[in-house]
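Query form — protein STE24 endopeptidase

QUESTION: What is the three-dimensional structure of this chain?
INPUT:
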Amino acid sequence: MPLSPTTFYYLILLIILVVFIIDTLLDYLNARQYDNPVPSELDDVYKEEEHQKSIDYKRANYRFKIISSTLSLLLLLTFLHLNGFAHLDSLVRSISDNSIVQGLLFIGILLLSSELLSFPFDYYRTFVIEEKFEFNTTTKKTFLLDKFKSLLLLVIVGGSLLSLIIWFYQLTQENFWIYAWLLIAFFTILMNMFYAKLFVPLFNNQTPLEDGVLRDSLEQYANSVGFKLKDIYVIDGSKRSTKANAYFSGLGTEKRITLYDTLIYDLTTEEVVAVLAHEVGHYKKGHIIINLILSVLLTGFTFWLLSLFIKNPILAQAFGISIPSFHIGLIAFGILFSPISEITGILMNIVSRTFEYQADNFAKKTYNKNFLIASLKKLSKNNLSNLTPHPATVFVHYSHPTLLQRIKNLRE
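ANSWER: The structure tokens for STE24 endopeptidase are given below.
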């Protein structure tokens, strides 16, 4: 017996509430761990006053997340109760009869509204919480420019992709998912190869690492493990935050290592090389390609599921809409898919944590585990990281093992 629109409506409400309750419970369990004693292996990460500062930072973020997520939930439930999707659908249909234009307007208005509603929260997080704990270095001008550029990219890139996907749907109906999958797969590969060249310069300056001891040491290590290190770039992360990072990007001849300038300031030469050894480990172990393949397969699975739901008129009727459309089917599916998304997210995090151990082991075997441990401790200290997270939070949300787990693995 098929589900009625009313049943679908209440199913959507149930999914929204269950996902919220689970996330809130995980945050609560994690918050209860803040005052736990620091493991002996990590007792040199923080001094007493620094440890208290890290606890205060975590509590501030916890309280902020509870308030912001609760308000977001209430807004969404109110929007559903007032038939907001039906009113928006009527609005876009009154503007245009073209399905692609309707879809772009519908999704665009929702995203723009979400961005406007989240703006004060993002502002508070950056200029109150991050400022209070001495992380924020961005200016209000940079903050606003970042928002504008991100929105512009979303309109241009996201709008183009959505237009093509709706066009595929108009041409092929239930088989649209194959063409949409190929499109997004191609775009994903393109982004992996050229993101650092095409999009990063819109937000940050990247300069080649200057000649000197650090570059010589990095190149010497890369040569020792047979890694062709063509490009080493320094990114001006300090213009926004004091937090440090490093990442590997690109494929084939386009691969490059990018170091945050804050990383170079915070770590010794040997510790930076240890970080590079970890990143090279990801490449040598094939993690970049495996993650890309998994991402493409997951995208295909998602589009296939979407194709099973997209033409169902009951989804539109559940939102009080009489005429089904691609855009309303996409929104309804996004909510219904969220439990599956949580599960696939957990599985991807399990894979990611396994890869992190493998990259650490590669760095330990080809360079020096003590320098890697020292770099991990410094980065955790400078980021006021949580040294005692709850195991459930780690299992569900962490893409990296905890600091304690990584150190124990490196010392085995």
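ADDITIONAL NOTE: The beta strands are 206-208, 232-235, 246-249, 256-260.
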